[in-house]
Amino acid sequence: MNLKKKNLTLAAVIFAVMGGNLAFAQGQDADSEELQSFVLDQVVVTATKTEQGLFDANANVSVITAEAIERMHYATLDEALRSIPNVQVFNYGLPGSISSKIRINGSDQVVVLMDGVRMSMPGTTEQFPFSAISDMDMIERIEVLQGAASVLYGGDAKGGVINIITKKDFDPKTKISIAGGNVTKENYKFSTQGKADKLGFRVFGQKYISSDFDDGAGRNWDTHDNNETVGAMLKYDLGEDSNLLLNFNHSDDEFKYYDRPYISDVDGSSTTKHLQIIYNQKISDSAHNVLSYNNYRRDFEGTYLNTASNGSPWNRGYKMWSINDTFTKKFGNTHVVTAGFERIKVDYENNDPKYTGFKTGQTNAAYFLQDEWKFNPKWKLTSGVRYDHPSETDDNYSKSFNLGYKFNDKSNMYVAYNDYFVLPTMDQLYGRWGANPDLLPEKGKNYEIGFNHMLDNKTSLSTHYFYRKPDRIIGYDANYNYVNADNVQKVHGWDIQLDRQFDKAWHANIGYARLSYENAISSDAVYLPKNLITLGVDYSKERWDVGLEGRGFIGRVNYGSVTQFPTDNYWVFNLGANYKATENIKVFAKLNNIFDQEYAEQTNVFSTYSKPGDWYGMPGRNFIAGVEVSF
To answer: What is the end-to-end Cα distance of the chain in Å, rounded?
Structure first.
């Protein structure tokens, strides 16, 4: 039996073990009703911009809770997102400007929101820097919508949407945390929050220093990162029915590393600033409005130091501001209408001294309308339209349909259709190499079907299938100039997820996702797993809170005959443990990559002068431990 078959067999055994406990559960109903809330009471907002129960959302939505974030001590968003089966994370393992790439359903066109407000920048190659969110304690939950959602969230929502929901309670509390380990050498956190009359506040600060690490094969990666972040959140109650929320973050990062594939020392820095203002107004019992302003800027500079370039500097930055207004109105028990507009301006500046610097930007104005029509106690039809007017390319119209059917309180299903579009980047339109100012947006269609079932009061099962077909892409011609083209590449996949609350202390989940490419036309697909398995077990009782999570990567799409990665099949397991020594003191530790697995998520083997081994190794076994004091 080969490694791939062994890995798949392991997953099947785990599913069987969890499912095999169902018969036992039938006779253990003493606390079933209380435990049932772990699924049915979870509320999500990302699928339709309105509150929905997770079980009845008629969408493939996964939730990472504040409890899971605290238990597993996720340091960044991309660490937390690894627990979702349809999310693929591609990390260089290096600090600074080279950040993680996140894909959902195989696409890196993903929209990132904070409290429903866009953080990611359309029309750029800059995916949201997930490492910029370091105050993980302020997160109430992370909602991950898997599937195209361009009608509500615009361009780039091809793969899905990540919505970071922040905590809004301001009960007086101060936390101080000190931690260290063999990769993250020092990590200091401070936060304090409280409320004075109508004003709630939270102030946060963090400093962490990381250093070199060994990958699973024992190769040393010479890195250094020194990051300082401060932030503040203010919430002012204007009355019983309205409030104003302000969120500000500032991060400075200084980093160094040795880039093995490019045989180069890299020395650089980056600065990230983010300001968000949200005005919430309850107009009546049936009407609600949210007006938001968002301002985000990221600048980074540095130098590649190698013999060939004799020092190659870079100096570039992105900035974005946006205004969004969303109005929601309920009409009896049958209709919920959501309407809104969004205006975004993005600027890109490149001042690399060795080249002619350029600065360019684009704006986009959009209008959207959605209707949730419950025309029968068992049926609901959600349909929407959107019009986008970008400044640098043609207008775009999008539409979506979602039909849900509720068999009973324990079973439901849905079918969905969504258009998607992706604006050309400013580099593609106006860059130095292969630019084409006449490019049109990428367009395509996404089809989806899903089924949810409560096996009993403690166990939920969900499965989904999607099929994505582009109508028009942005590719290259024979001279490597950007052009629009038809594309025969199709992507489809399915997943199954099982979640079980055994009792008040024990909980487990497992997910499997299969991703398939037809007629893959580039090396891009080789990064993606054919099979991805996620599993987790956690125990929380009295003073202890412990979690074990695993992620299995099984098989790749082959591209060429050269070995691009150290392995195509691997498992990575992490263990987090928390012990509440007193009411105010918590001791914690985390062990990552328990079995010291060698693996890589990024590679440079495709370039002309590269060779097997020119990949970016991820950290081998490493740990962090610390203490948190609250008062």
So the answer is: 55
Q: Which amino acid is at 41?
A: D
What is the sign of the dihedral through the CA atoms of 502, 506, 507 and 512? negative
Spatial CA neighbour of 109 closest among 391, 531, 468: 468
The length of the chain is 631
Beta bridge partners of 112: 162
User: Can you list the alpha helix ranges (DSSP code H) found in 141-252?
Assistant: 150-153
53 SS3 class: strand
Pairing of strands 223-239, 220-221: unpaired
Distance, in Å, from the CA atom of 56 to the CA atom of 197, rounded to the nearest integer, reads 37
The amino acid that residue 7 corresponds to is N
- What is the helix, strand, coil percentage profile of the chain, to 5? 10, 60, 30
Neighbours of 196 (CB within 10 A): 9
Q: Which of 347, 311, 321, 356 is nearest to 124 (CA)?
A: 347
CA distance 585 to 545: 14
Token pair, residue 363, equals 């704006």
Nearest to 131, CA basis, from 184, 56, 201: 184
Instruction: Please report, for residues 456, 463, 512, the alpha-carbon distance to residue 406 in angstroms, rounded to integers and kept in the order given.
Output: 17, 15, 24
Amino acid at 386: R
**Do residues 122 and 318 touch, judged by C-beta distance below 8 A?**
no
Which of 259, 184, 189, 255 is CA-nearest to residue 226? 255
**Dihedral (Cα; 381, 491, 509, 161), 10-degree rounding:** -60
Report how far residue 551's alpha carbon sits from residue 574's, in angstroms, rounded to the nearest whole number: 9
Helix (H, G, I), strand (E, B) or coil at 185: strand
Please indicate, yes or no, whether the overall pTM of this predicted structure exceeds 0.85.
yes
Distance CA 307, CA 297 (A): 33
What gap in Å lies between CA 118 and CA 276, rounded to an integer? 10
Give the H or E element holding residue 23: helix 22-26
Q: Tell me, what amino acid is at 361?
A: G
**CA-based nearest residue to 302, from 253, 263, 262, 346:** 253
Contact 316, 348 (CB under 8 A): yes
User: With contact defined as beta carbons under 8 Å apart, do 372 and 48 qualify?
Assistant: yes
Mean pLDDT by 10 residues, the chain (631 residues): 51 48 43 50 86 91 95 91 90 72 90 90 75 83 95 92 92 95 91 95 94 93 91 94 95 87 83 94 96 92 69 80 96 96 89 62 94 96 97 94 96 97 88 87 95 94 96 87 83 96 95 86 74 96 96 82 85 97 96 96 74 86 96 93
What DSSP character marks residue 132?
G
Q: How far apart are CA 255 and CA 96, in angstroms?
A: 6
CA separation for the pair 104, 108 (Å, rounded):
7
Taken in order 511, 132, 57, 106, is the CA torsion positive or negative?
A: negative
Segments of 36-123 assigned E as strands? 43-44, 52-53, 61-65, 87-90, 101-104, 110-114, 117-118
15-35 residues labelled b (16+ CB within 10 A) or e (exposed): beebeebeeebeeeeeeeeeb
> H or E stretch including 511?
strand 506-518
Three-state DSSP class for residue 66: helix
**Do strands 312-331 and 160-166 pair parallel, antiparallel, or not at all (unpaired)?**
unpaired
